[in-house]
Amino acid sequence: MTIAIDGPSGSGKSSVSKGVARRLGLAYLDTGAMYRAATWWCLHRGEDLADQTAVAHAVRVMPLVMGLDPSGPTVHVDGTDVGEAIRSTEISTAVSAVATNLDVRAELRRLQRAVIEAERTPSGFAGGRGVVAEGRDITTVVAPDADARVLLTASEEARLARRSLDVHGTADAAAVEATKDQVLRRDRDDATVSQFQVAADGVVTVDSSELDLEQTIDAVLAVVEQVTGRVVGPRHGS
After folding, report:
1. Residue 11 assigned to a binding site
2. pLDDT (tens digit per residue) in 1-60
3. In this structure, is residue 52 part of a structural domain?
4. By the 8 A CB rule, do 166 and 11 touch?
5. 9 assigned binding-site residue
6. Has residue 157 been placed in a domain?
7. Where does ATP bind (predicted)?
8. Which end of the chain is more exposed for a tag (fewer CB within 10 A), N or C?
9. Is residue 53 part of a domain?
C-alpha cells in the first residue's frame, strides 16, 4: 500500500504521516526533509543558491540516505547525520531557493519514486507492505497512482500555533509572530511550483483544525479504508 499525504506548512503532515505509518506497519518517507537535506548539502559545499545550474548539479551528486522507520526517521548526507541540522532556522530560511529550482525538483522526485517503488518489494524497510510518503508533489506528481491520497489542511491560526509549538515550545503571540513569516513565505514560494492548497481530482481533503493528533490519524485511516475498501485496523481508543 502506498499512501500519499500533502498539505500546507504546519498542517501536521509529518506527525500524522508517521502515526499512520506506525499504525499500519509501513515505511515513512519525509520528502520535505529531502529538500532540506539538499539545501544543507549545497550550503555545506559553498554553492550560491541563486546559481540554479550549480545547485541542480550538486543535488544530482548528493549522497543522500533516508531512514524510513516512522518511529525514528533519519537523514544522512555523505555519512553525516543531518536530521537536526536541517531543522535549523538557517535551513528553513534558505530551503525555498532550492525547493523552487525545477531541476532540483525533478531529481528529488526521481529519488522519491525510487524509494516508493523499493517499498513494494520484500527487500524494502517494511518488507513490501508499503510506505506513507508526505510532502510537496506527492499526491499529484510523484505518486498519483497511490492507493490513497490525502490533502491535510488546517486553518492558518492552527497551523501557526502548531509550528510555533514545534519550533519555540510555545504558541504565545510572540512565538506565533516569529514563526509567521517562515510558514507563510514557504507556502507562498512553494505554491509557484507545486499545487498543495486545493485537492486535485481523487485526492481527499482532511481538515485537522479542530482535531488533535490521534483524531487526525484516525481521520486519515478512515479515508484509507474508504478509498481502498481495505480494513486497516482499530482506531485510537477503540
Report:
1. yes
2. 999 999 887 788 889 999 999 999 999 999 999 999 999 999 999 999 999 999 999 999
3. yes
4. no
5. yes
6. yes
7. 7-15
8. C
9. yes
Is 13 labeled as ligand-binding? yes
The Cα-based distances of 219 to 11, 61, 202 in angstroms read 14, 39, 17
Known binder of ligand: residue 238? no
| Distance in angstroms (rounded) separating the CA atoms of residues 66 and 43 | 19
Spatial strand order of the sheet with 64-67 comes to: 64-67, 74-77, 80-81
State yes or no: 15 annotated in a binding site: yes
Q: Considering only residues 164 and 81, tell me which one the structure prediction assigns the higher pLDDT.
A: 81
Q: Give the pLDDT score at 9.
A: 76
Q: How many domains does the chain have?
A: 1
The parent domain of residue 159 ranges over: 2-228
Residue 236 lies in a domain: no
Task: Find the CATH number of the domain harbouring 115.
Answer: 3.40.50.300
Closest to 109 in 3D by CA, of 78, 136, 80: 136
Dihedrals phi, psi of 25, to nearest 5 degrees: 70, 35
